[in-house]
Write a structure and sequence with these properties.
It is a single chain. By secondary structure, the chain is an alpha/beta fold. The chain has 2 domains: about 5-105, Alpha-Beta Complex (Ferredoxin Thioredoxin Reductase); about 110-230, 3-Layer(aba) Sandwich (Oxidized Rhodanese, domain 1), CATH 3.40.250. Helix content is about 50%, strand content about 10%. It contains 12 helices and 5 strands. Strands 1-5-4-2-3 form a 5-stranded parallel beta sheet. Strand 2, helix 9 (about 160-165) and strand 3 form a beta-alpha-beta unit. The protein is globular.
Length: about 230
């Protein structure tokens, strides 16, 4: 981590603490989520000039274009008006209500409780869905390891996010900030089954839409992103 990023990250952490105090919100019980989101906010601050929500693609070069993105400046408008009141947590997971904390259940609990009888008949239908959840991705990865199926897992987060945490079994890192070049590099994979993921599922949903529009046949999004993933990571 370079000194400029480290200094800006310290400012971001102070900013997040102020939001907690001012809005009576709390950190996510999963510390990794807070760390990853803070680094994403810091990256956007350095790259785009504001702490845009790291769960969404920042598109805009001119001042006028960036002005339209103001509702995505953290704490973003969708989080304050919809996500936190309805779900008890913002989309990125860094801001939580006390009730969300009280009801928090770690993802690995559901992983222990779930065990699918792995076979190709159970797994192949997952590629017909628009979205799969954490447990289903674990099943797919287990199935691939057992040579029951084959697919490609793509991370569309930024390099610094991937450096912090990655899903074991990821095949390609294609950051949304360099999406065009990244998709060009796998243009020979358009007939393959593909699963995409990001931090919380929003950026990868947009990438999924773009990939399908340019001829990728089967693209499935990981709902909830790596934030919700209960399988092996490193």
């Amino acid at each position: 981590m370079d000194k400029q990023f480290e200094k800006e990250l310290e400012k971001t952490n102070k900013f997040v603490s102020l939001v907690y105090d001012k809005m009576n919100l709390f950190p996510n019980p999963n510390k990794e989520i807070n760390d990853i989101t803070a680094k994403g906010l810091t990256s956007n601050k350095l790259k785009h000039g504001s702490r845009y929500c790291p769960c969404f693609v920042v598109i805009g070069e001119t001042k006028e274009e960036k002005k339209k993105l103001n509702d995505r400046v953290c704490p973003c408008k969708p989080a304050l008006e919809k996500e936190i009141p309805e779900d008890g947590v913002c989309h990125c997971g860094i801001f939580c209500t006390s009730s969300y904390i009280d009801n928090y259940v770690k993802a690995d609990v559901s992983m222990v409780e779930h065990k699918l009888n792995l076979n190709s008949e159970n797994l192949n239908p997952l590629f017909k869905k628009d979205e799969i959840n954490s447990v289903e991705l674990v099943d797919l990865l287990d199935g691939r390891n057992s040579r029951l199926i084959n697919f490609i897992l793509i991370d569309v987060r930024e390099i610094i996010e991937n450096d912090t945490k990655m899903i074991i079994g990821m095949d390609y890192l294609i950051p949304t900030s360099d999406l065009g070049n990244g998709l060009d590099s796998i243009s020979d994979k358009k007939e393959e089954n593909i699963v995409v993921h990001c931090h919380s599922g929003s950026r990868s949903a947009k990438v999924q839409e773009i990939m399908k529009s340019i001829g990728f046949k089967t693209v499935v999004n990981l709902s909830g992103g790596i934030v919700s993933y209960g399988g092996e990571t490193k």
